Amino acid sequence: MTTITNHLPTAELQALDAAHHMHPFTANGELAQKGARVITRAKGVYLTDSEGEEILDAMAGLWCVNIGYGRDELADVAARQMRELPYYNTFFQTTHVPAIALANKLAELAPGDLNHVFFAAGGSEANDTNIRMVRTYWANKGQPDKNIIISRKNAYHGSSVGSGSLGGMVHMHAQGGMPIPDIHHIDQPNWWAEGGDMSPEDFGLARAQELEKAILELGEDRVAAFIGEPIQGAGGVIVPPETYWPEIQRICDKYDILLIADEVICGFGRTGDWFGSQTVGIKPHIMTIAKGLSSGYAPIGGSIVCDEVAEVIAGGEFNHGYTYSGHPVAAAVALENLRILEEEGIVDHVRDVAAPYLKEKWEALADHPLVGEAKICGMMASIALTPDKASRAKFATEPGTVGYVCRDRCFANNLVMRHVGDRMIISPPLILTPADIDEMMRRIRKSLDEAHAELVEKDMMKAAS
Ligand SMILES: *Cc1c(COP(=O)(O)O)cnc(C)c1O
């Protein structure tokens, strides 16, 4: 199918892009040689590029386009809000209707006494807020030394200096002077890669108990909070063993440690509930939100805070905020997105239709010669590629080499599926129908078959010794 394009030829756009645009998380020199793919429009679950190719977006952009592309309602709301009040701040004892309405809606949707919202323009900013908020909470309570935040290796909490420090990505820490002080990282609950001979259940408990060990070592009076994604996203869609989160909750309760759930990916229906915390059965004091909050149509994030923490913070001035905290256009767009999620029953669709159907197809991938485990929670899923399933072997090649081969086959087959090391991951729009899922799985299987054939031909199906 060809689409008539109303812009410059692809090669020209790519050259201009390479000349002036610095891409995030990219070796820009390498990309300049190759040329970036130019996306021109999108509808439903499909992207269109400048060559007129129709690409199935199994990543929902960057884990965010939960309601799918091309919903005019959001564009209409944005235009209306821009005409009425394009901007005003919420700093100087002022407020506006979109911020009021969105905060109220979020308080209604969030579980328990998570009733207060501090807005940001995205997840990184919101996690920076969280660092300062939990430390200020304890300082206001007379415990300024209770300021260490415990996180996990291979966690992703954003890319600002604060949130990147909370995250546990070694390649990020290697650049630009991270992590900041008083952030402590424990091991992740990644059984496939790190579980050794333990059962997943025992391993989940052991990894959770590292939190207790860390608290005892650092001192209960030094540890302010623990932060975790209910399901690790950017780390490779790591679904923890079922024993993991209940034990983390028990430890946080026992030692009076605040629990922060980073719901930036898991929130707003992705796991089949409104929030991942509900799926894994935890009661956080703070939830980080962004991405699916607006389905990516406008940049907005925030922290949803429980009564007790909000009350202590309200006891003094919190010297923190962003120009775009509660931006009226972004807030209005988010509110409309939540209306659509709710009125169209999209969270129910995930739980009752899309996720069960996808689970059946996804878990069947474990039969493929290249696939070890296939893990899924709601509409986020991963497969571990391996040269030997029985021993959960890693490849002899540099980690990520095989994943990249597979990712390239996906790209060629007009499918956006990402690789994290040698894991392949998806996080598609939540509106996927069973027919969409069939088409996605067809492209995934084709890409896996081609990648496998290429690896066999290049003699790369070899285990690391
Ligand atoms: C994407 C992400 C963030 C960062 O959000 P930005 O909007 O990119 O700043 C934080 N936490 C998690 C779990 C994420 O996936």
UniProtKB/TrEMBL annotation:
Superkingdom in the source lineage: Bacteria
Cofactors named for this entry: pyridoxal 5'-phosphate
PROSITE patterns named in the record: AA_TRANSFER_CLASS_3
Molecular function terms from GO: pyridoxal phosphate binding; taurine-pyruvate aminotransferase activity
Pfam families associated with the record: Aminotran_3
Entry keywords, A to Z: Aminotransferase, Pyridoxal phosphate, Pyruvate, Transferase
Top-level enzyme category: transferase
Assigned EC number: 2.6.1.77
SUPFAM superfamilies: PLP-dependent transferases
Similarity remark: Belongs to the class-III pyridoxal-phosphate-dependent aminotransferase family.
PANTHER family: AMINOTRANSFERASE, AMINOTRANSFERASE CLASS-III
Protein name: Taurine--pyruvate aminotransferase
Protein source organism: Falsiruegeria litorea R37
Organism lineage: Bacteria, Pseudomonadati, Pseudomonadota, Alphaproteobacteria, Rhodobacterales
Gene: tpa_3
